[in-house]
C-alpha cells in the first residue's frame, strides 16, 4: 500500500506540473469532431462517432492522472481501445467528453467519448467502490452520460455512429445467483430504455454490444466456481437485453453486436489470431503495475515486451490492444453487413 501511495503521489505531482506548464496529457485519441480528408475513409463513409459505456470503451477519462505513470486507458497502454479504432475507420477521431482534474472532479472537454471506467448502467457512483485511491467516486452511470450529451448537443443526427457497450459493472457488482438476478435484469431493461432514448433523439446508426463472457476473464477463472456465476449472469443480461430491445420496438432500429459469441471464439482459437497466451494470464505484470489495473499499465510494466500483442487480457478483466483491434474489425464488419459503408 505504501508503494502504491508513493506512486500515486508522484503521478499527481507530475500531472500538476503538466497542468501548470501546459505539457501534453497523453490521453491520445484526437478531437471529437469529424476529420476532413481528401480521400474516403477505410469504412467507405465518414461518420462522427459518439460512445457511451464503461472501461471497455473509455478513451481517456482518467488520463490526466494516469498518464503520469504511462497509463491512461484500460488496456495495454499506450494502445487504443476499440471505439478509437472504429472512429478512425470512419474518418474520425474520438477523445474523452470528460476528464478528471487534480481535485478528482470531472471536467467537460470537447470530445464525444462519454464512456467512463467504472460506470454502471444506472447505479450512482457513490454506491460502490472503484479505484478510489486513484480517481475517487466520480464516474457517471450511462444514463447520466447520455443526459450530459443531450444537454450539450440537444440531439443526435444521421451523420453519427453511436456506440453503446455497458452492463459489465452491473454484473460484477450483482453478487451471486439467485439474488443477483433482479439486479442484472433491471440493468438490462434500463440499458434498453437508454438505447430507446438515443434513438428517440435522432440517432439513426446505433451499435449495441452485448456482454462478453465475463466468467472467462482471468478474474472469472480465479473465482471459487471458476467463473460459472459470472458466465450465467452475462448470459442473463444478454438474453434480457434482447427481450427488452424487442419489447421497446428497437431491435430493427439498432445494430446488435454479439461480443459474447465473438470472444468465446477468439479464446477457443487464440493461437490462430496471433496470441501466445489466451485468457489464463495478464499482459500487465501485477508486481509492476500500480494497483494491478490496466489503467496504470505501460510498456514498462508489461510481462513481456510484446505482451500487448501476444496476450489477450491486460489485467484480470480488460482486453489488450490486440483484442481491441480485432474487436473493432468485427464491429466494422457488422456495421457493413447492416448496409452502412463497407
Low-confidence stretches: 1-37
Q: Biggest sheet, in brief?
A: 4 strands, parallel
**What level of helicity do the residues show?**
25-40%
- The CATH topology corresponds to Rossmann fold
Decide which structural class fits the backbone: alpha/beta
Tally of helical runs: 11
Distance between the termini: 50 Å
- Order of H and E elements: HEHHEEHEHHEHHEHEHEH
Q: How do the strands line up in the largest sheet?
A: 1-4-5-6
CATH architecture: 3-Layer(aba) Sandwich
For the secondary structure, the number of strands is 8
Identify the CATH homologous superfamily. SGNH hydrolase
Q: Compute the average pLDDT.
A: 88
Report what the structure shows:
By secondary structure, the chain is an alpha/beta fold. It has one domain: SGNH hydrolase (Rossmann fold, 3-Layer(aba) Sandwich). The protein contains eleven helices and eight strands. It has helices at about 1-20, 65, 80-90, 140-155, 170, 180-200, 220, 230-245, 260-270, 305-310, 320-335; strands at about 50-55, 100, 105-110, 160-165, 205-210, 255, 275-280, 310-315. The radius of gyration is 19 Å and the shape is globular. The termini are far apart.
Q: What is the strand and helix layout of this fold?
A:
Elements: H1 2-21, E1 48-53, H2 63-66, H3 82-89, E2 98-100, E3 106-108, H4 142-153, E4 160-165, H5 168-172, H6 181-200, E5 206-209, H7 218-221, H8 228-247, E6 255-257, H9 259-268, E7 277-282, H10 307-310, E8 311-313, H11 321-337
Parallel strand pairs: 1-4, 4-5, 5-6, 7-8
Antiparallel strand pairs: 2-3
Helix pairs in contact: 3-11, 6-8
Amino acid at each position: 500500500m505504501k508503494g502504491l501511495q508513493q506512486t500515486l503521489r508522484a503521478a499527481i505531482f507530475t500531472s500538476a506540473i503538466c497542468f501548470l506548464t501546459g505539457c501534453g496529457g497523453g490521453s491520445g485519441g484526437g478531437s471529437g469532431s469529424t476529420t476532413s480528408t481528401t480521400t474516403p475513409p477505410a469504412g467507405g463513409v465518414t461518420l462522427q462517432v459518439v460512445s457511451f459505456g464503461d472501461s471497455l470503451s473509455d478513451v481517456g477519462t482518467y488520463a490526466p492522472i494516469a498518464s503520469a505513470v504511462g497509463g491512461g486507458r484500460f488496456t495495454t497502454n499506450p494502445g487504443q481501445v476499440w471505439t478509437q479504432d472504429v472512429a478512425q475507420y470512419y474518418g474520425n477521431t474520438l477523445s474523452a467528453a470528460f476528464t478528471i482534474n487534480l481535485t478528482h472532479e470531472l471536467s467537460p472537454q470537447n470530445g464525444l467519448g462519454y464512456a467512463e471506467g467504472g460506470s454502471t448502467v444506472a447505479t450512482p457512483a457513490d454506491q460502490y467502490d472503484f479505484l478510489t485511491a486513484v480517481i475517487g467516486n466520480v464516474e457517471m452511470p450511462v444514463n447520466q452520460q447520455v443526459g450530459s450529451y443531450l444537454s450539450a448537443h440537444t440531439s443526435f443526427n444521421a451523420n453519427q455512429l453511436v456506440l453503446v457497450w455497458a452492463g459489465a459493472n452491473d454484473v460484477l457488482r450483482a453478487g451471486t445467483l439467485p439474488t443477483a438476478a433482479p439486479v442484472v435484469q433491471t440493468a438490462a431493461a434500463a440499458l434498453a430504455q437508454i438505447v430507446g432514448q438515443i434513438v428517440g433523439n435522432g440517432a439513426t446508426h446505433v451499435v449495441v454490444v452485448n456482454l462478453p463472457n465475463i466468467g472467462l476473464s482471468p478474474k472469472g477463472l480465479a473465482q471459487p466456481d471458476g467463473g460459472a456465476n459470472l458466465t450465467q449472469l452475462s448470459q442473463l443480461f444478454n438474453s434480457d437485453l434482447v427481450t427488452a430491445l424487442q419489447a421497446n420496438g428497437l431491435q430493427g432500429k439498432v445494430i446488435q453486436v454479439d461480443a459474447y459469441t465473438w470472444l468465446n471464439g477468439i479464446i477457443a482459437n487464440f493461437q490462430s489470431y496471433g496470441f501466445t497466451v489466451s485468457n489464463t494470464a495478464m499482459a500487465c505484470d501485477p508486481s509492476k503495475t500500480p494497483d494491478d489495473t490496466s489503467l496504470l499499465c505501460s510498456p514498462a510494466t508489461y510481462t513481456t515486451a510484446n505482451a500487448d500483442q501476444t496476450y489477450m487480457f491486460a489485467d484480470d478483466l480488460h482486453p489488450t490492444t490486440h483484442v481491441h483491434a480485432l474487436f473493432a474489425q468485427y464491429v466494422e464488419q457488422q456495421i457493413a453487413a447492416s448496409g452502412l459503408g463497407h
